[in-house]
Amino acid sequence: MVSLIDDIEGQITFLFEGQPVTARPGDTVASALAAANTRHLRDSVVSGEPRGVFCMMGACFDCLVEIDGVQNRQACMTPVADGISVKRQRGGVEVAL
Ligand code: FES
Fold this sequence. Notes:
By secondary structure, the chain is mainly beta. The chain has one helix at about 30-35, and strands at about 10-15, 20-25, 40-45, 50, 65, 70-75, 85-90.
């Protein structure tokens, strides 16, 4: 179970799927979304099933999201910042050639 540390001051607001989410300085995108009870971060490219955080340490790549239009960002390794826009990653990644 995820719980917040109450003695961290400050507040950050970012968007997830266009909806505001409140976080604290030092949160990662994944920890902030977990604290907001958001578990579905991407869809499996193979099956389309929902995926979310698994390792929380950058090893499994189950937490890939789109941040400010950039795909394949690891939510568990990315510090949250005020005003960023995070979206679920759906389907395969587009590669610019
Ligand atoms: S949860 Fe495993 S890499 Fe992010």
